[in-house]
């Protein structure tokens, strides 16, 4: 749950309410699960409030539940249709009511926790140690009201959505999410039943412990299915994200050298590789689009410094290369950058590089990666030789 929450952190900044709500659900449940671990429980115990860990865990869970309801409500987007399907209208109404109920619930849980719950001694497990107490039963029933509603709504909606999924991955993911919600409904019902029965009639401590352990295992399985179910539909997006990151990573040396040669071409001066990939204010796909445009703009500027014969010399240097056309362009760029260092435009500038029939940014980036591959292999001495041959050819063609 933590890994998925961290993976989805960019959703918080991009202003997408749909993805932001999904992140909130994962972050809230991850926090609740961490608060159940011994290390975190031991750290919280240093705060002089008995059983504070339980209250914080219930706050985190309530926040995650409200985020899940928001995610379901925003999944349908906005519509101007005069008639909204009943199940959509009900989900949106429940989500709206849940916000107010959530605030009331948190405000109600806090005084109940500090007044009706017997906290004279710290508890190792809140439910087990407070089983049979009316105050704890009231407190826990207020808390479980929210997951009871949420699991029912989400389970119903995701079951319907799974039948209408457009892709197999989306269908599998929604089926797993729906299963996890119905499991959550069973979990909440079992916990509420245990708490109420224990308050009405004393139960054997062994029965209470076994029930709590069994439902805890059930809940952990539920969270695992949630994480897997939500991740499956995003595998395609994750693969595309990785390809984009790798392309940006490969293009960095070429982009940096061109931006250093022509300051002002990019929106910001190039930084180190670490700094560039630490920037998080711009999505990777947008950055890739900018970098390809920056490289194209800088290449247009290069031709003013390249001798007229440089492209021919670059093509001759790349003749034996296995990928000759990108290699020729790489030699042309590398040699021209040496000419740019003198800051003296050529008296007879080279023609612009041949226009390629790119259909989108990905196609252009793929070509530039091929160029960059050879570009990084060309030494300064090799580039100087190409530039010298071009200048010699230019001199040979000049009229005497």
Automatic annotation (TrEMBL):
The keyword Membrane applies. The chain crosses the membrane at residues 21-44, 56-76, 97-117, 137-156, 168-190, 217-240. It holds the Pfam family DUF6545. Residues 242-376 form the DUF6545 domain. It comes from the Bacteria. Keywords: Membrane, Transmembrane, Transmembrane helix. InterPro entries: DUF6545 (IPR046675), MAB_1171c-like (IPR050039). This is DUF6545 domain-containing protein.
């Amino acid at each position: 749950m933590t890994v998925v929450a961290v993976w989805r952190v960019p959703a918080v900044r991009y202003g997408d309410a749909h993805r932001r709500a999904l992140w909130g659900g994962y972050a809230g449940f991850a926090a609740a699960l961490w608060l159940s671990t011994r290390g975190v429980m031991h750290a919280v115990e240093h705060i002089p409030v008995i059983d504070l860990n339980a209250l914080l865990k219930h706050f985190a869970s309530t926040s995650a539940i409200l985020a899940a309801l928001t995610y379901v409500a925003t999944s349908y987007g906005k519509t101007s249709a005069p008639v909204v399907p009943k199940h959509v209208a009900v989900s949106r109404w429940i989500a709206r009511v849940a916000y107010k109920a959530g605030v009331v619930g948190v405000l109600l849980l806090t005084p109940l926790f500090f007044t009706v719950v017997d906290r004279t001694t710290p508890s190792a497990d809140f439910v087990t140690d407070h089983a049979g107490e009316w105050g704890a039963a009231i407190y826990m029933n207020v808390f479980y009201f929210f997951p009871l509603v949420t699991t029912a709504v989400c389970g119903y909606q995701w079951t319907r959505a799974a039948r209408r999924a457009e892709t197999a991955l989306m269908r599998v993911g929604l089926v797993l999410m729906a299963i996890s919600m119905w499991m959550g409904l069973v979990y909440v019902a079992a916990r509420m039943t245990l708490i109420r029965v224990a308050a009405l009639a004393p139960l054997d401590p062994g029965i209470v412990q076994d029930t709590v352990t069994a439902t805890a295992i059930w809940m952990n399985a539920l969270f695992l299915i949630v994480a897997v179910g939500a991740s499956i539909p995003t595998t395609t997006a994750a693969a595309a994200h990785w390809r984009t990151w790798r392309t940006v990573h490969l293009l960095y040396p070429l982009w940096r050298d061109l931006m250093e040669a022509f300051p002002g071409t990019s929106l910001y001066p190039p930084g180190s590789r670490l700094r560039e990939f630490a920037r998080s204010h711009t999505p990777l796909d947008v950055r890739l689009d900018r970098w390809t445009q920056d490289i194209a703009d800088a290449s247009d500027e290069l031709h003013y410094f390249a001798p007229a014969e440089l492209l021919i010399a670059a093509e001759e240097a790349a003749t034996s290369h296995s990928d000759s056309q990108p290699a020729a362009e790489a030699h042309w760029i590398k040699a021209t950058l040496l000419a740019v260092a003198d800051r003296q435009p050529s008296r007879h500038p080279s023609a612009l590089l041949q226009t390629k029939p790119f259909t989108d940014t990905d196609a252009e980036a793929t070509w530039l990666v091929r160029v960059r591959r050879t570009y990084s292999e060309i030494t300064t001495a090799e580039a100087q030789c190409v530039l010298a041959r071009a200048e010699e050819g230019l001199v040979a063609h000049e009229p005497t």
